[in-house]
Amino acid sequence: MGIGNGAGIDEKKIAKLVLHAHPSLLRWAPPCKHNFTPAQFEALKAVCDTIVPSLPPPFKDGEAFELMRGVTAEDVARFYEANASDEGVAEVVAASLEVLVRPVVLKTMLQVLSLLSTGWGTALLAVVGRVNILTFKYPVFRKFSRLPLRDQEKVLRGWSTSPLPQFRLLFKAFKSVGGWAFYSKVNEYGYNVSWKAIGYPGVAPEVRNRTEADYKQPRPLGDAHVDAKEAGAGLKSILASKGFVVEEVESFRSQSEKLGFSKNDNDVYLQCDAVVVGSGSGGGVMAAALAKQGFKVVVLEKGQYFAAQDMSTLEGPTLLNMFEKMGAMATDDGGVALIAGKSVGGGTTINWSVSLKTPQNVRDEWANEHGLDMFNSERYDKATQAVCDRISVQPNVDKHSIQNIILREGCKKLGYHHGTLSRNCASDHYCGWCTYGCPTGKKQSTAQTWLVDAVNTGNALILSNCTADYVFHGANPGGVKGSKAQGVAATIVGGPNRVYIKANATVVSCGALMTPVLLLKSGLKNPNIGKYLRLHPASTCYGYFPEGTGPEGRPYEGGIMTEYAPVNFRKPTEYGGLLETGVFHPGAFSAFHAWGSGADNKERLLRHGRTSHITVVVRDKGFGTVEIDKGRNPKISYKMSKYDQETTVAGMVQSLRVLVAAGAVEVGSQQLGAERFNAKGASPSDIEAYLNRVERRGASETTAQIISAHQLGSCRMGTSPSTSAADPRGEIWEVEGLFVGDGSVLPTAPGVNPMVTIQSVAFCTAEHIVQYLNKFKI
Ligand SMILES: Cc1cc2nc3c(=O)[nH]c(=O)nc-3n(C[C@H](O)[C@H](O)[C@H](O)COP(=O)(O)OP(=O)(O)OC[C@H]3O[C@@H](n4cnc5c(N)ncnc54)[C@H](O)[C@@H]3O)c2cc1C
Known about the structure:
Blueprint: H1 38-51, H2 73-81, H3 89-100, H4 103-116, H5 119-128, H6 149-160, H7 165-184, H8 195-198, H9 205-208, H10 212-215, E1 225-227, H11 228-231, H12 235-241, E2 245-246, H13 250-259, E3 268-277, H14 281-292, E4 297-300, H15 315-322, E5 329-330, E6 336-338, H16 347-350, H17 360-368, H18 378-390, H19 402-414, E7 419-420, H20 450-456, E8 460-464, E9 466-475, E10 483-492, E11 498-508, H21 515-521, E12 538-544, E13 563-566, E14 577-580, H22 586-592, H23 598-606, E15 611-618, E16 625-628, E17 634-637, H24 642-661, E18 666-669, E19 677-678, H25 684-697, E20 706-708, E21 735-736, E22 738-740, H26 755-774
Parallel strand pairs: 1-8, 3-4, 3-11, 4-8, 6-20, 10-21, 11-22
Antiparallel strand pairs: 2-3, 5-6, 7-13, 9-10, 10-11, 12-15, 12-18, 13-14, 14-15, 16-17, 18-19
Helix pairs in contact: 1-3, 1-4, 1-6, 3-7, 4-5, 5-6, 6-7, 7-15, 7-22, 14-20, 14-26, 18-26, 19-24
The protein binds flavin-adenine dinucleotide.
């Protein structure tokens, strides 16, 4: 079966979901062609069907069973009957792994699958998880796909707690990608097979109510936005009408030949004052600030442009189109899930609105220990104020969501410090869907603010579906630095045509994961490029509040994050952590929650609508790296330091205490092999014993599900090229006219949600770029 319709859909009963939204955000079209051998694929299919198996309903006829409001026993039975392979998940997992992991890592995964396709190999891999699956019956050795489900589950569970970290990571990869594909999938009817059973509405109410007329409203970026892929062969004339197009630039052509870039009929050459690569937090500020000063700016964005009326909030299609690597990216060994935005507006389009100024202790550290005076200057205060004004940061919340009430009430009961978070939206913004794009436009993302300012000057062009591949730089006669930036080459998504942009200033704002990749691919040599990657590693605990207990509502309703509490384990001035809530729609929920068996996975999902989360987000002292391998593929590595592991586990224990105090009936963590703790009626000593077990299990990238939504510091600013990648003005040490404007320039992790800090720094860097560009004025 291909990407199947699955067991859960009764075609006679179901009406196709009709929504008015961008076509890309309605279609779930993940990669599904792969190069696995039939034996490897059969093994993978069996692994996927172990993670999400077909099961009998969890109740017998006439037996009482706790169902979510509005859910019928029939809905649950259909969901239990569905398995991963009937839904076409194995094809998607195979093809996605080929996209997600580097060839060398994939090779290891394929070797494991090849072993699983044999009886002796399966027995060997069971031993890795300290599991015995041999029987005295013939055949003694059975390949994984021939094992009974009970034994298949034993093998995977064994891996999840194996003494060999490689197998724990392998388990995490299969479990996460399998769950992600099964639960975020949208079939041809616009539904997912689990939704009715778990009481999940699939889309935000605003999307369901949107009319065709709403959808057809003008988009804020108007015709200053051009989708390079959609424009096709007409791109050159569209851009010529805007006055950017020039004749072929000879020096670019000759360098391109050396780089192996083919010459194509529809290649386009543009000229402007500044090219900004990436349209997220940093890139948006840059574009607005430079265009405001009268400079011609071209913004390149590899993602598409979606305005508020385009958002479908459908999980699967949105992950595929608005997130880096389909929302399923991870560090090289699979240890940390890396979540980052990829559309016009970057991370700000899918982020959770929390808008916090850089804490004073962090500013002091950056000024005093890193020698960056800017951070203790009035200029930085003014930049932060300008940012907060433009993105409408305000501290009020009219109504908190269930998850935030639970965090607040639990903290109150325990006497823990807690507070309300400022956000870049109005106080009545009550939306838990914004992680899949704000359907009302109330969230003041970059695409709603800075980029609108940029295009309103008449000086900016936003070119989407365009991936920058190379920064041209060369001789700099008379200049202080050995080399000078000349512009960029970008591929129009889908290829082969390219856009070449000649500019006096080049600003790289691709985010802390991709900025080093572009600079390294462009031949830059400073070893600090890609070093010091901070991730604000995070892990989540949950509490289950059955219908009728705890506050009303669903975890995906209401502001995603409106309350916080500091991790008590560290002093306020130390590198510590914050407890914040987080939203997990079904795909993300299954990907990141613990897994004990297929039945365990399905039961957890049945409780999805009444499961509340608290995430500990850590200000990491440790750091990772971004490199490129010989094949020029990004390689992102990160191992949590002992100090950060201690903060994480302390934050998890604190979260669990808060959830228990708030009345959770069951609590649990996202540790590998984690238990589900029955908190209802548990004695204080039972609870302490459980928390001790959580502490002992630990919280590292190989023992827990660790997520990063904040990537920072990989091209940090500093006062010397021996310790940093960019100078205090944000200019790359090696190349004049090449600036970094995103989270990569932060000297260390700020320890708070970073959007306002990134924008404030970009605001200051933009002032330097204006000075630089003024030199070119005649
Ligand atoms: C789910 C989620 C929730 C979050 N919630 C919050 C929050 O509530 N508050 C907060 O402060 N922060 C939050 N963040 C973090 C915040 O959004 C990011 O830290 C911030 O957006 C990063 O800004 P940036 O400029 O570094 O990169 P980004 O905003 O990620 O922008 C980079 C852009 O560059 C593009 N790009 C990359 N490579 C290329 C290339 N080669 N060519 C062309 N384009 C390219 C990308 O597609 C992307 O659009 C959240 C992040 C996520 C993922």
